[in-house]
Write a structure and sequence with these properties.
CATH superfamily of the largest domain: Aldolase class I
Distance between the termini: 33 Å
Function: Catalyzes the synthesis of 5,6-dihydrouridine (D), a modified base found in the D-loop of most tRNAs, via the reduction of the C5-C6 double bond in target uridines. Specifically modifies U20 and U20a in tRNAs.
EC number: 1.3.1.91
Number of domains: 2
Structural class: alpha/beta
Family: Belongs to the dus family.
Order of helices and strands: EHEHHEHEHHEHEHHEHEHHHHHH
Number of strands: 8
Enzyme class: oxidoreductase
Largest sheet: 8 strands, parallel, barrel
Protein name: tRNA-dihydrouridine(20/20a) synthase
Strand order of the largest sheet: 1-2-3-4-5-6-7-8
Shape: globular
């Protein structure tokens, strides 16, 4: 595995020119989550599933156009298939960033119309855009004109008082005129005034039936459901009604039961599945490279804290890394010390 850091004269070696625009299997994906779905986390997740689509954290257009582009776009080649999620509302800027996504070899570019935080609202980013479907359609149209990659959208059922099914229907009807035909719908509305992002993931009720109705009314669209889904059994139940399932926090906090079985259950690929300890060992060469680049140990291994969730020694594993991983001298040896608390085929304890 090597870290991609393409230069302008080498982008052809990593571009997706050979990939048809929509040849991506979105039956299962891990949701974009700020501070969580970093490149380090995605490398770890890829060790458990070959086929699950992985998303970056949301990256704003301003960060890419005016900031450290390499910091936000670099990733490990093992992460494919991988989608870049963008935050923004300026069609020209989004088109420019969509071109960057193609140049850097991403497999998809996604527009965030679901984030409810005050910070992004103030910049006309995220869920507030549900009040402006025509602008969203314009953004997606410009993005598609700028790249050969699939351009997709992730949004909510609605926002605040714009929360009827009729509004959701009009939103989808308007946005699909852009040519975008892959809609990931978080089956909750967002309350933009009064709830934190965390509360917006928990308090507004899940209404899965509205997502099902959108698929029934727009059979030509690819409709992916998101929100509160915690198991592959639940995913399979949803797949009777929609085209794909996106799992969020459960795939991060307790990844092994979902991602290690995803290829067989969802994608029909019955390849051998490594146990949890073997997954941790397979991660070590990557960890060594990251530390050699100057990354602090804990910044990388914090994404593995859920690997032994519910397993004997899992709490001790997490505690050892939490207490020792921040030390200046912490390195791979510290990670190996933590692994001594867990054993292959360990029995569950009270986690």
């Amino acid at each position: 595995m090597t870290i991609l850091a393409p230069l302008p004269d080498s982008v052809s070696t990593v571009s997706n020119s050979a990939r048809p625009r929509d040849l991506i299997n979105r039956r299962l994906s891990v949701a974009p989550m700020m501070d969580w779905t970093t490149s380090d986390a995605r490398v770890f997740h890829r060790l458990m599933s070959r086929h699950t689509l992985l998303y970056t954290e949301m990256v704003t257009t301003g960060a890419l156009i005016h900031g450290d582009r390499e910091r936000f776009l670099r990733y490990d080649t093992s992460e494919h298939p991988i989608a870049l999620q963008l935050g923004g509302s300026n069609p020209r800027e989004l088109a420019e960033c969509a071109r960057m996504a193609e140049d850097w070899g991403y497999d998809e570019v996604n527009l965030n119309v679901g984030c409810p935080s005050d910070r992004v609202q103030n910049n006309m980013i995220g869920a507030c855009l549900m009040a402006h479907p025509q602008l969203v359609a314009e953004c997606l149209s410009e993005m598609q004109a700028a790249t050969r990659l699939p351009v997709t959208i992730k949004h909510r059922l609605g926002i605040d008082d714009l929360d009827s099914f009729e509004h959701l229907h009009r939103f989808v009807e308007t946005v699909k005129q852009s040519g975008c035909h892959s809609f990931t719908i978080h089956a909750r509305k967002a309350i933009l005034d009064g709830l934190s992002p965390k509360e917006n993931r928990e308090i507004p009720p899940l209404i899965y039936e509205r997502v099902y109705r959108i698929k029934a009314l727009f059979p030509e669209l690819e409709v992916i459901i998101n929100g509160g889904i915690k198991t592959l059994d639940e995913a399979q139940a949803h797949l009777k009604h929609v085209d794909g399932v996106m799992i969020g926090r459960e795939a991060y906090q307790n990844p092994y039961p979902i991602l290690s079985q995803a290829d067989a259950v969802i994608f029909g690929d019955n390849h051998a599945i490594a146990d949890r300890l073997a997954i941790a060992e397979q991660f070590i060469p990557y960890l060594e490279r990251r530390i050699a680049e100057g990354a602090p140990l804990y910044a990388v291994v914090k994404h593995l804290l859920g690997l032994f969730h519910g397993q004997r020694g899992g709490r001790q594993f997490r505690r050892h890394l939490s207490e020792n991983g921040h030390q200046r001298e912490a390195g791979v040896a510290t990670f190996r010390e933590a692994l001594r608390f867990v054993t292959p085929n360990s029995m569950p304890d009270e986690d």
